[in-house]
Amino acid sequence: MFEKIFTIFFLRAFSILLLTVTTSSVSATEVTPEKTTVLENSACIQCHEKQNPSLIKDWQKSAHASAEPAVDCVSCHGSLHTNMTSTARRDKTCTNCHGGEKAPVAHSYASSKHGTLMRIEKNTYDWHQSFASANYRAPGCGYCHMHQNNHNVSRTVRHDLMSSRSGNSAIEKVQDATRAVCQDCHSPRYITRLLDNGEAMLEIARKKVREAKAVIEQAETNFSESQLAPAKTQFKKMQHHLRNVHLGVGHQSPDYQWWHGQPALDGDLLRIKDSIGELQRLKSINAANAKD
Fold first, then answer.
1. Long-range contacts of 49-55 (CB under 8 A, 24+ apart)
2. What region does 134 belong to: left with phi over 0, alpha with psi -120 to 50, or beta?
3. 80 phi and psi, to 5 degrees?
4. Full-model pTM
């Protein structure tokens, strides 16, 4: 009888102990996954919504979250819970997705002073350091666009290039977010000078685009869509060169402010005027011949 009672007691105690160990193991895994555990984006969100809900909310506001397909946790950090932060902080993670090293968005940064320093020193940095307090001598993609680990990359990106900053709260908000990044290393006066110079440079570029648009719109009253096709194709290239100026201003790249930006816009405007001027010349010749 005693042996039976002891056996029942032992089995129950063992079951409780086993349940406790199993439960503890699951809880520990939920907090810190094993290094070999392959994670999915849903698992990352489920865990970090409890640990750091603002991080998830910032990501959900960003262009990354609304992209098709979405640029999610696994896209940047990888699927293993090993060196996830240091992997995502390296520029290569961003450039691989944004068109490669020769794409304007990456190349305009690479050709700046910041980009040159990064190329020289990147292998000496401790990539486990957070994106704040000038932890890196040269700021990379993540330092500027995910400052203080804010996962809303859209905060420092300006989309409306044809509107002036004056009285535009959306543009001013972007510049305020940019200023917060720059002041980790630079003085307020220097930052203000760069922002003002950049806005003046963009306005010069916008004037060229507006002039080209006006020339085409005026020509539409006299010429067909097919006749104006070369001028309109050139105008599309102007949008690309306007963006180059913007990238040059944002990344402080002289090559994109000027060589790939303003002179390219000058060339676009001249070609559009030349194309429409040639149409007008031929029209005048045909009119004169018709009279004869």
1. 55/149, 55/151
2. left
3. -110, 145
4. 0.83
Q: Which residues of 42-69 are buried (b: 16+ CB within 10 A; e: fewer)?
A: ebbbebbeeeeeebbebbeebebbeeee
Instruction: Encode pLDDT of 192-245 as tens digits.
Output: 999 999 999 999 999 999 999 999 999 999 999 999 999 999 999 999 999 999
Residue 259 half-sphere exposure, CB side, CA atoms within 13 Å? 6
User: Tokens in use for 226?
Assistant: 């097919």
Q: Are 98 and 106 in contact (CB under 8 A)?
A: yes
For a pLDDT cut of 90, what percent of the chain falls above it? Answer: 72
Both structure tokens of 174: 């972007």
The domain spans of the chain are: 37-157, 189-291
Q: How many CA atoms lie within 13 A of 147 on its CB side?
A: 20
